């Protein structure tokens, strides 16, 4: 705005006598929060320059313009002292309003026990802003404060602010940079004046749900005294909170809700929200369940049901998860993303993730930060999530804030993604429900995360056998005397004439009778209907099930042409251009295929026939080792192109995303995706194989045993670069031994393919075979361009992955005196050394699938070597690592009776590899010579 226009506006305003200090302070207030100033001032300030160069202007030229305009006006109107004083007071009022929006939560009544020692916030005192008792009856403009009128007496403004921001809800949202979002929240919060209104019917429903939450815990405590149940007592409002979220989401079009939580309160949600029959739970407590699977404790188990809402039935899924606290959160997000993709939902409106956290866990577990960081990325966004913290104010036995975290609130981590945080007193269930509705509406409006901090307490210890008074004596003395939430709310409704004491007692009695019957106690529960995904083709299938993997040479050549095609005018990097020129030759049959081409052809063949493909990893678009180049980058304008998206008009979608720099949350996300979607080939590639160490909990607790513990099928593929090329201890080993150590019950397959044809058919097998179990692949590095690690189109068209590959040179089996077993890259070192030494009495057999061990295929190959007594296992890894310790019983079972089996490889080591290339080379030569007896 030009200076003349600005001065004309100031002269025409109701504050025409205002001085420079008033205008400057108003502008500074605007800079903190545009919504804090009246609309006419906001319009003026909005019109000022906002580009980067203007940032200096606001503190120099703009300020000088304001001063000059004010000075000129004062000359025209005399002293203007009265108007000047009123104008200054007006700014002070607006500053007070802004202070409440920023810091009112620090004086809110959040702790049911009254133990929180909140620091005094001077900004919330009118006197801090120069406002006295004499000003309390003065009318001021309320600015953007939403209280139904433009002006009000200061005492009424102050009372309204206290009610809105310092009652049972403490709202943190001023850290959000988007003004529209802040104004939206202000409108919703302030219009209620801190007193949300609910109908008598709604209030009676709240009471009934609190009766259920309390009743189940008391029933279990009486029927199974001392048994661990991780009760919800103290946080009973979680039940009406979650049910309200589901109802609200369903009324706005949600079709599925996925819930993830640790054990606190889980049994209560299973019975009182998801509708699990109480009798099933009682049988579990009584130990009546039998299964041939490993199973899991009852407070780790998941459940599925349908829940009736005004918008139709919503499918609920409570995710299975171990006691690794927050690890289930990215799993839930992945499951929701799969459901969105299946429904063609881009904004998350049809699927809602709800995650329930502990106060110590959300602040202490790093996967929380990783998951928040996923929330707005292309590969992992789900349209926002709702995060509930069951804030017991104690983590196991730690209740001192300075021991549990370094922040005021346990929820401060959520500010990294500008999520609004609503702290709410769990003893005020109406405030809880208001926040629930607000959270769903915010999430659906802005597609962002939102956090509800349910401040409550834990009536018992960490579990029911624990003694909490030993470590929290004052807290538990208070808890012992504190009435349960159901009693507090019942008294509130009785006093308001909404219900009678007899009606309350009848609710308690009716709920207990329902538990005695053992039937479902959730009014909204509905029988599950068929869902859009069918897992039945994959249930109870073993590895040897037959499937069609055939593919013709003609189809392969056609696919080769398409994956090698680059649009006209799309300028490739010179090195990438060379890769694509070679791929054209490979497609024509003029050159053998390398690893990258074979892999790309595998994905192309799947999407052409309707199988969706999803791949993520830190460098997976290009490939860490410059081999894949599935995503091309135009050197002119940085646009991208994926040849795999242009295979066929009717092809299935394929998504390849370079992931955030995370292993734990990303792998857990992909696990969640794969457990919800059997018809998509889901792959995660580690940048280096040992990077998977950062996601070990996902591998240990979900991938390796999810089927045995929970019956959860999952076809996730992990690509882990592995091989000893002298790159030191950090980038040599994908820790093959860890996967083999956990191999049992046919839980997954562990493969070490050595040729392009093998990787082509392995990838296709993983999706075409009607088995959905994880595939762990030790992928190569140097073999990606090794001259001998190539395959013909005919070898790809064979359509079979060979679990074992026998001798390829023309060696007379009868002359063989030693057979060397090996796996992976070392095979090519052995082959080269044997050829150079012209040894014809040593045969080399590659084991391409180490688990499940291919005994039948091995027996067939060893038919020609039954006379051999000398067998060797050769590996690059140290003796205490790799396959030797975990798989030698398979090798012993394979060799002829009376034969011996010896080891050739590096000596045992605490480190995966040496750090010096010269030492590596010496070790490698030694182990190869030893294996071949050179």
UniProtKB/TrEMBL annotation:
GO biological process: glycolytic process; tricarboxylic acid cycle
A GO CC annotation given for this chain: cytosol
Co-factor(s): thiamine diphosphate
GO molecular function: oxoglutarate dehydrogenase (succinyl-transferring) activity; thiamine pyrophosphate binding
Keyword vocabulary terms for this entry: Glycolysis, Oxidoreductase, Thiamine pyrophosphate
InterPro entries: 2-oxogl_dehyd_N, 2oxoglutarate_DH_E1, DH_E1, KGD_C_sf, ODO-1/KGD_C, THDP-binding, Transketolase-like_Pyr-bd
Residue ranges annotated for the Transketolase-like pyrimidine-binding domain, each copy included: 593-786
Gene3D superfamilies in alphabetical order: 3.40.50.12470, 3.40.50.970, Multifunctional 2-oxoglutarate metabolism enzyme, C-terminal domain (3.40.50.11610), TPP helical domain (1.10.287.1150)
Protein EC: 1.2.4.2
Enzyme class: oxidoreductase
CDD domains the record matches: TPP_E1_OGDC_like
NCBIfam families membership: 2oxo_dh_E1, PRK09404.1, PRK12270.1
Subunit structure: Homodimer. Part of the 2-oxoglutarate dehydrogenase (OGDH) complex composed of E1 (2-oxoglutarate dehydrogenase), E2 (dihydrolipoamide succinyltransferase) and E3 (dihydrolipoamide dehydrogenase); the complex contains multiple copies of the three enzymatic components (E1, E2 and E3).
Family the entry assigns: Belongs to the alpha-ketoglutarate dehydrogenase family.
Protein function: E1 component of the 2-oxoglutarate dehydrogenase (OGDH) complex which catalyzes the decarboxylation of 2-oxoglutarate, the first step in the conversion of 2-oxoglutarate to succinyl-CoA and CO(2).
Stated name of the protein: 2-oxoglutarate dehydrogenase E1 component
The species this protein was found in: Aliidiomarina haloalkalitolerans
Lineage summary: Bacteria, Pseudomonadati, Pseudomonadota, Gammaproteobacteria, Alteromonadales
């Amino acid at each position: 705005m030009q200076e003349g226009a600005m001065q004309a506006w100031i002269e025409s305003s109701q504050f025409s006598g205002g001085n420079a200090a008033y205008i400057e302070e108003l502008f500074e207030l605007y800079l903190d929060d545009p919504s804090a100033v009246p609309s006419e001032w906001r319009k003026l300030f909005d019109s000022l320059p906002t580009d980067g160069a203007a940032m200096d202007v606001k503190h120099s030229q703009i300020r000088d313009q304001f001063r000059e305009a004010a000075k000129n006006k004062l000359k025209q109107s005399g002293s203007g002292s009265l108007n000047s004083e009123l104008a200054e007071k007006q700014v002070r009022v607006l500053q007070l309003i802004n202070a409440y929006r920023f810091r009112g939560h620090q004086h809110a009544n959040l702790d049911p026990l009254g133990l929180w020692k909140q620091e005094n916030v001077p900004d919330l005192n009118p006197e801090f802003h120069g406002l006295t008792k004499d000003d309390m009856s003065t009318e001021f403009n309320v600015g953007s404060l939403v209280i139904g009128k433009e002006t009000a007496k200061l005492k009424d403004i102050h009372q309204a602010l206290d009610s809105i921001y310092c009652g049972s809800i403490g709202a943190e949202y001023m850290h959000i940079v988007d003004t529209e979002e802040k104004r939206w929240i202000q409108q919703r919060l302030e219009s209620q004046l801190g007193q949300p209104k609910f109908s008598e019917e709604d209030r009676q429903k709240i009471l009934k749900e609190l009766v259920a939450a309390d009743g189940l815990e008391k029933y279990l405590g009486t029927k199974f005294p001392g048994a661990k149940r991780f009760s919800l007592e103290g946080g009973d409002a979680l039940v009406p909170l979650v049910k309200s979220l589901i109802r609200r989401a369903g009324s706005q079009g949600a079709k599925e809700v996925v819930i993830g939580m640790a054990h606190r309160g889980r049994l209560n949600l299973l019975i009182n929200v998801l509708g699990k029959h109480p009798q099933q739970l009682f049988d579990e407590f009584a130990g009546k369940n039998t299964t041939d699977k490993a199973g899991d404790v009852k407070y780790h188990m998941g459940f599925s049901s349908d829940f009736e809402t005004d918008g139709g039935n919503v499918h609920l899924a409570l995710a299975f998860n171990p006691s690794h606290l927050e690890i289930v959160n990215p799993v839930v997000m992945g499951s929701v993303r799969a459901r969105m993709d299946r429904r063609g939902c881009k904004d998350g409106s049809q699927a809602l993730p709800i995650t329930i956290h502990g106060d110590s866990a959300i602040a202490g577990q790093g996967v929380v930060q990783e998951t928040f960081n996923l929330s707005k990325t292309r590969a992992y966004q789900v349209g926002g999530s709702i995060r509930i913290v069951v804030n017991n104010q104690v983590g196991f036995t730690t209740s001192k804030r300075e021991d549990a975290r370094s922040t005021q609130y346990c929820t401060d981590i959520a500010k990294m993604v500008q999520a609004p945080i609503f702290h709410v007193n769990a003893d005020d269930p109406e405030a809880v429900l208001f926040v629930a509705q607000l959270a769903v509406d915010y999430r659906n409006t802005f597609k962002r995360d939102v956090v509800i901090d349910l401040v409550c307490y834990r009536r018992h210890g960490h579990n029911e056998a624990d003694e909490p008074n030993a470590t929290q004596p004052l807290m538990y003395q208070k808890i012992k005397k504190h009435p349960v939430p159901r009693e507090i709310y019942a008294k509130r409704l009785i006093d308001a004439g909404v219900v009678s004491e007899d009606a309350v007692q009848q609710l308690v009695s009716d709920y207990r009778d329902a538990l005695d019957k053992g039937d479902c106690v959730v009014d909204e529960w509905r029988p599950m209907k068929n869902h859009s995904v069918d897992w039945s083709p994959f249930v109870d299938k073993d590895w040897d099930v037959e499937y069609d993997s055939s593919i013709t040479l003609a189809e392969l050549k056609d696919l080769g042409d398409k994956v090698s095609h680059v649009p006209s005018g799309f300028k490739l990097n010179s090195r990438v251009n060379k890769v694509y020129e070679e791929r054209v030759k490979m497609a024509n049959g003029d050159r053998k295929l390398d690893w990258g081409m074979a892999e790309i052809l595998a994905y192309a063949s799947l999407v052409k026939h309707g199988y969706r493909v999803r791949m993520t990893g830190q460098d997976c678009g290009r490939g860490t080792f410059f081999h894949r180049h599935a995503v091309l980058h135009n050197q002119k304008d940085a646009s991208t192109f994926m040849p795999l998206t242009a295979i066929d008009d009717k092809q299935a979608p394929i998504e390849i995303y370079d992931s955030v720099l995370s292993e734990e949350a990303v792998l857990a996300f992909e696990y969640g995706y794969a457990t919800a979607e059997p018809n998509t080939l889901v792959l995660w590639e580690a940048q280096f194989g040992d990077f998977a160490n950062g996601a070990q909990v996902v591998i240990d607790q979900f991938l390796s045993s999810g089927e045995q513990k929970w019956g959860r099928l999952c076809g996730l593929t992990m690509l882990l670069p592995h091989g000893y090329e002298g790159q030191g201890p950090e980038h040599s080993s994908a820790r093959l031994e860890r996967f083999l150590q956990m191999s049992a019950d046919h839980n997954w397959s562990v493969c070490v393919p050595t040729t392009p044809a093998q990787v082509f058919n392995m990838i296709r097998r993983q999706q075409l075979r009607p088995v959905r179990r994880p595939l762990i692949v030790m992928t190569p590095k140097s073999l990606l361009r090794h001259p001998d690690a190539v395959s013909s189109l005919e070898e790809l068209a064979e359509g079979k992955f060979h679990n074992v590959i026998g001798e390829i040179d023309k060696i007379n089996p009868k002359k063989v005196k030693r057979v060397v077993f090996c796996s992976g890259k070392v095979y090519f070192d052995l082959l080269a050394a044997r050829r150079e030494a012209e040894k014809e009495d040593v045969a080399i057999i590659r084991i391409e699938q180490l688990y499940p061990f291919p005994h039948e295929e091995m027996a067939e190959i060893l038919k020609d070597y039954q006379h051999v007594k000398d067998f060797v296992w050769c590996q690059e890894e140290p003796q205490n690592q790799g396959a030797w310790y975990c798989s030698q019983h398979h090798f012993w079972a394979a060799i002829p009776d009376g034969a011996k089996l010896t080891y050739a490889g590096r000596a045992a080591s605490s480190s995966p590899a040496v750090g010096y290339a010269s030492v590596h080379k010496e070790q490698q030569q030694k182990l190869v010579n030893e294996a071949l007896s050179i």
